[in-house]
Amino acid sequence: MTMQNSEGDVGAAAEKIRKGRTSLGIEFGSTRIKAVLIDDEYATLASGDHGWENHLENGLWTYSLDEVWSGLQSAYAALAADVKARYGERLTTTGAIGFSAMMHGYLAFDKDDNLLVPFRTWRNSNTHEAHERLSELFQYNIPERWSIAHLYQCILNHEAHVPQLAFFTTLSGYVHWHMTGRKVIGVGDASGMFPIDPATHSWDQGILAQFAGLPEVAEQPWRIADLLPEPLVAGAEAGTLTAEGAKLIDPTGVLNPGIPLAAPEGDAGTGMVATNSVRVRTGNVSAGTSIFATVVLDHRLERLHPEVDLVSTPAGDPAGMSHANNFTSDLNAWVNLFGEFSKAVGKPLDTADLYGTLFRMAIGTEADADAGGLINYCFYSGEFLAGLDEGRPVFARGPEADMNLANFMRAQLFGAFCPVKIGMDVMTHDEGVKIDSLVGHGGIFATPQVAQKILAAAFNTPIKVMSTAAEGGAWGMAVLADYLKHADTPLDKYLDERVFAGARSTTENPDPADVTGFEEYFATFRKALPIEQAAIQAIDLER
């Protein structure tokens, strides 16, 4: 699952590229659009990416649709250039393509396919009233991020665009629609739009009827069932790349149409695939701009828990998720600050060395188990798990705290993992959810041992990191694209026997001192949350 290096490997890879024995996965993450090309043995042949950032528009987090397409083209062009540089080949085709993206949010269109309001991302937490009303009505947690919460909040707010609505979807569903002309969505991503019936792997008909029966919904000129895309399980036929879609990916015209596309998925589903965590009682922690811990459930939860999202694997099996909106944004800002300092003193560090040096301090001998009394709140935006409608990053300490670099970095990492622990504790402590294995993935695990060791302390459970940990969702989506050719085999068996049969991994067991230190930090973190409320009141959201 690494890049091809030897002359023989390069020649064999070039042959696979020419013959289309490859799969392409493209994921729209919160800060990066990444494209990964894999071969039929799941080795990464080439990659490309494009950085982007959400921005506030009228107080709501968004990306423009122009950014979606220019970012896709930039990431793909970088991938194609990588293919050319490594193998001397023009990328004219692939065996299959799959698109994935950050889940949830609200992309709403009228009957002429015009966007009605700017894309509202998962990061927005202006939907609390909708969350509370729908969760109570359905007795099923409808998080603030979910697409149906966004729609219902628009109805409650009497937004002018609502009667014009003809279709709404997620970012992955939107991109796939323009690639194939089909309004479909992978069942995992669908489960972040509206509740899924685990028996049918489609929208829960009873809950659809409950929503349709609300007086304020019944008076609309549309039916909710007509607005939603069609959910598809992994391996289902989901359309082929049209000529228009090929031009949207590659305006140079080198990429040919006609390529099969996998059902578009969310980043939770691609995270499950990338960590081989689709089997019951397996779980993964996907860490990026946001962080979520997902466990495939062995039993139905007994009670409604606002801290736990009920979602689906790409195969349609039920899973519980603790999702925190905030993870690396504040951490990255601090690391960038230290990077500026290294440049200022004439000793600049590359990104890997910078992160590696700082992260290793957090588990070094100079770090106290509880981070020395330092506290960091990484709340760049609102955080439901912490009861925050908005966020303000805050670093705090008492006058007797042990302020050194090791404790500072430990506080950064501890604070980043605290919000997701709230929902995970509900599943494991309150509902007795059993976990056979928990796998971490995402760029934060690229520095060996550090984040893995701290996560083991946070959850008090062994954490495995696989050789694919840094590949993340784009690689997972490429695997789902390849699965189109193997859909006669159950997804969990396909992953076990084909994709991960020879995968390398490392496991970090929880250190008792680290577990105690994290629990002490976590108790202070929760006790001192009023600091956040005060910061929200005192500091304007926009400069």
TrEMBL record:
GO biological process, one term: D-xylose metabolic process
SUPFAM superfamilies: Actin-like ATPase domain
CDD domains linked to this entry: ASKHA_NBD_FGGY_BaXK-like
Domain Carbohydrate kinase FGGY C-terminal per the UniProt entry, residue ranges: 284-481
Any coiled-coil regions, as ranges: none
Domain Carbohydrate kinase FGGY N-terminal: 24-269
GO terms assigned for molecular function: kinase activity
InterPro entries cross-referenced by the UniProt entry: ATPase_NBD, FGGY_C, FGGY_Carb_Kinase, FGGY_N
One family name in Pfam for this protein: FGGY_C
Entry keyword set: Carbohydrate metabolism, Kinase, Transferase, Xylose metabolism
PANTHER family: SUGAR KINASE, XYLULOSE KINASE
Family according to the record: Belongs to the FGGY kinase family.
Protein name: Carbohydrate kinase, FGGY family protein
Organism: Bifidobacterium bohemicum DSM 22767
